[in-house]
């Protein structure tokens, strides 16, 4: 049996973009992922499909599994000869009890590595506009916990030393003891007028920040309803917050936006929305599956070089076509001299990745737009009379392209490259989150995402609006009694993001 190993990986403060490259690579290779109550469960989607996911999370007084049992679990899974990822919020060794887990592994003779993560002690203030050090204010900072081991006979915190220390003070896990902690600091010499900021759910679209002083912050936090997880920053650097706040000024900050694309495709839209400050909830409603007749698909791919035109009407079609193509051919030149047509920039970009330029591109990313593009281009491309075309599409595609091109004299064969099915798996708990906490916007990038969302039987959230990628998707929403308040003028991901931003800027 091969020797197992444990990787203690810091997941960072919440923003998935702050995970290290090494951490992400290890997650993708793991046999088992043992994870905490992470701010972003989207990281679990980086794991391979057959991975075992074990939740052992801790949040305040709620423990899914005691620490001693977590230690034993790590040892047990590694001794099966498995690659085990222990995924912990922030950094494993910054109040993450990673040292205790490493001790247990050493005692059991289990190999391990530590992959540091970005601690919220630095990232949280930075996302709230607070530099923990600043030459105009301080050249040192202190990080301490507000939640010690309750079984210890006495505190090991040097409150007096912390109160008298110069520079910035950052408190992690201190919300449950906030009032008492502030009182203790004052009693040991901290000025009650010292600026304080609290940053809740730091680095995520749910981030909230409030300012006060040592004397007032506990009352302000209670009035504003702030609780864990949160970072408390004490010191004059808090004065910089108003000027340096960048994250909370982003155009979609504070908006919860649901992405319903397939799990594989969701990333592109999610990243663009998150970069604009949104809290993105990935709720894939469809998944891509093989076509019902894979033999016919394979035969169409094998003979694709014999056609005058290859017509692609979705990025998925491009992906699946070339998966099949390169299973047979080793050289892109085997595709022959066929000219290429694409339904929109997203599809064209996929083709470009294979070194293929597009001869006809629809101005509007809908089937009707592609047919019109062929009509408009005939002066340049010549007649379509008797031209052979292979139309690569999904099983649920409308007949508009085939009928339209046939009416122009073309001979159209079909290459059904994939099918779509409702996505029933919900590993991140997105459905429950939407039902319990609602959303501001639900995005739809195709009619199939609409149909599959409706099959989930989720009650439409109060005050939530629908955002559609284009008129065909909007029509499907209408059929289900939903009036999309946002519709992209450019029927692609960039156009959808632009439309959402413009909606909230008006």
Set out the fold topology.
Layout: E1 5-10, H1 21-29, E2 32-35, E3 52-55, E4 58-59, E5 62-63, H2 67-78, E6 83-88, H3 98-107, E7 111-115, H4 120-127, E8 141-145, H5 159-164, E9 168-172, H6 178-187, E10 195-200, E11 208-213, H7 217-224, E12 230-234, H8 241-244, E13 256-259, H9 266-275, E14 279-282, E15 286-289, H10 294-302, E16 309-312, H11 315-328, E17 339-342, H12 345-352, E18 360-361, H13 367-381, E19 388-394, H14 400-407, E20 411-422, H15 430-437, E21 441-444, H16 447-455, E22 465-468, H17 471-479, E23 486-487, H18 493-505
Parallel strand pairs: 1-6, 1-7, 2-3, 2-6, 8-9, 13-14, 13-21, 16-17, 16-19, 17-18, 19-20, 21-22, 22-23
Antiparallel strand pairs: 4-5, 9-12, 10-11, 10-12, 15-20
What would you note in describing this structure?
The chain is α/β, with parallel strands linked by helices and about 500 residues long. Helix content is about 35%, strand content about 20%. The protein folds into four domains: about 5-120, 3-Layer(aba) Sandwich (Cobalt-precorrin-4 Transmethylase, domain 1); about 120-250, Methyltransferase, Cobalt-precorrin-4 Transmethylase, Domain 2; about 255-285 and about 425-505, Rossmann fold; about 290-420, Rossmann fold (3-Layer(aba) Sandwich), CATH 3.40.50.10090. The chain is built from 18 helices and 23 strands. The strands form five sheets. A six-stranded mixed β-sheet has the order 15-20-19-16-17-18, with helices on both faces. Strands 3-2-6-1-7 form a five-stranded parallel β-sheet, sandwiched between helices. Strand 10 and strand 11 (about 210-215) form a beta hairpin. Helix 10 packs across helix 11 (about 315-330) and helix 13 (about 365-380) runs parallel beside helix 14 (about 400-405). The relative contact order is 0.09.
């Amino acid at each position: 049996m091969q020797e197992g190993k444990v990787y203690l990986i810091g997941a960072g403060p919440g923003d998935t973009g702050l995970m290290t490259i090494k951490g992400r690579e290890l997650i993708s290779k793991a046999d088992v992922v043992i994870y905490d109550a992470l701010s972003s469960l989207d990281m679990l989607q980086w794991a391979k499909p057959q991975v075992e996911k074990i939740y052992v999370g801790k949040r305040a007084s709620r423990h899914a599994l005691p620490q001693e049992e977590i230690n034993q679990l790590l040892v047990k899974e590694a001794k099966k000869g498995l690659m085990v990822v222990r995924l912990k919020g922030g950094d494993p060794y910054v109040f993450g009890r990673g040292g205790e887990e490493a001790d247990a592994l050493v005692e059991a003779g289990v190999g391990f590595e530590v992959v540091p993560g970005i601690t919220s002690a630095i990232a949280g203030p930075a996302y709230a506009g607070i530099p923990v050090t600043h030459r105009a204010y301080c050249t040192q900072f202190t990080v301490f916990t507000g939640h010690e081991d309750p079984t210890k006979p006495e505190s090991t915190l040097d409150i007096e030393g912390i109160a008298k220390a110069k520079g910035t003070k950052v408190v992690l896990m201190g919300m449950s003891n906030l009032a008492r902690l502030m009182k203790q600091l004052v009693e040991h010499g901290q000025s009650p007028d010292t600026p304080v900021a609290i940053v809740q759910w730091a680095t995520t679209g749910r981030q909230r920040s409030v300012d006060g002083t040592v004397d007032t912050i506990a009352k302000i936090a209670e009035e504003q309803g702030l609780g864990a997880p949160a970072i408390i920053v004490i010191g004059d650097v808090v004065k910089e917050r108003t000027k340096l706040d960048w994250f909370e000024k982003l155009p979609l900050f504070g908006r919860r936006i649901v992405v319903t694309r397939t799990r594989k495709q969701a990333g592109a839209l999610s990243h663009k929305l998150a970069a604009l400050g949104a809290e993105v909830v990935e709720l894939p409603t469809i998944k891509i599956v093989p076509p019902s007749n894979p033999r016919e698909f394979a035969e169409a791919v094998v003979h694709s070089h014999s056609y005058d035109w290859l017509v692609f009407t979705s990025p998925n079609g491009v992906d699946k076509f070339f998966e099949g193509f390169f299973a047979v051919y080793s050289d892109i030149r085997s595709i022959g001299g066929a000219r290429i047509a694409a339904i929109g920039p997203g599809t064209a970009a996929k083709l470009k990745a294979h070194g293929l330029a597009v001869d006809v591109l629809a101005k509007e990313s809908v089937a009707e737009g592609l047919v019109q593009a062929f009509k408009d281009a005939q002066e340049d491309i010549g007649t379509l009379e008797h031209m052979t075309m292979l139309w690569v599409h999904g099983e649920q595609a409308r007949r508009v392209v085939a009928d339209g091109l046939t009416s122009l004299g073309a001979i159209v064969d079909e290459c059904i490259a994939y099918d779509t099915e409702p996505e029933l798996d919900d590993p991140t708990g997105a459905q429950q989150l939407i039902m319990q906490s609602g959303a501001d916007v639900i995005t739809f990038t195709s009619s199939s995402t609409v149909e599959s969302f409706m099959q989930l039987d989720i009650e439409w959230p109060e005050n939530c609006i629908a955002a559609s990628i284009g008129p065909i998707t909007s029509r499907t929403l209408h059929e289900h009694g939903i009036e999309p308040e946002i519709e992209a003028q450019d029927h692609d991901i960039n156009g959808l993001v632009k439309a959402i931003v413009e909606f909230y800027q008006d």
